[in-house]
């Protein structure tokens, strides 16, 4: 099975020279997930792999960094952070039109909805605990030991990130959104002082970027490392809480309004406290800033997805256009967090 989004002949002939056991003919199937970097299952006989590529077309500078995704996951092999095996990175745009990498396909359970509706209520808490464990493991990686000490620049992480995402947001801006302007201004004036923490940061940590064992709550792989860097760990923690504050269902993928106690789901505070215990932290001051930042950054990301849909090079154009309406919602929620 081929796909119009991937030159199968070109990728097949290229990969036979770079991946042991990959033979022609090769078939490909595009995954529905992955708004940013189109993702495909490659099949050859009874074997399969996953290919992630930069999307075609004109892209924002530093976006869709498949080379960084490849590097960080390869560096984490054998660590307490579960990742797929990395097989090959191709940075030659002439092969299929953009850079791509190939990794192991993990056969596991994937959850789009943090309510975990397919899991029995007494069994749901274990998934939240595992999500917490893996997040703490990411932030406990010895950067020097795995060769990631230069994976991100030095300096104040939030200053750097706010400047970066404001720049990205301006580059994809389609109209003036007043709450977004207000949130940008507030964040700019309220960056916390450095506290000495510099860790690996996933950048998009949430349950739908994880694969779990088919018979237990054990995480088999953390995926989608495109936004990873070195920086401040509370950005990842706040991103989890931000997601849960969104409406439940296919679009929001949150837990707003859900009776978590009745549904066997962890509260925001319990998740934060468990994380702090795992990392030996007494607590987190000014968590509202980190939450506001998470809402801002996601709003900027969604604006970029929306702009790519308008430009005709989104991975899923229909869904990407719908994301445009959420930018204002994320900005408003960010302002509430700031209060």
Automatic annotation (TrEMBL):
Start and end residues of each Aminoglycoside phosphotransferase domain: 28-251
UniProt keyword list: Transferase
Any one Gene Ontology molecular-function term assigned to this protein's record: transferase activity
Domain of life: Bacteria
CDD domains in UniProt: ACAD10_11_N-like
UniProt cross-references to Pfam families, sorted A to Z: APH
Gene3D superfamilies: 3.90.1200.10, Phosphorylase Kinase, domain 1
Protein name as it appears in the record: Aminoglycoside phosphotransferase
Species: Thalassovita mediterranea
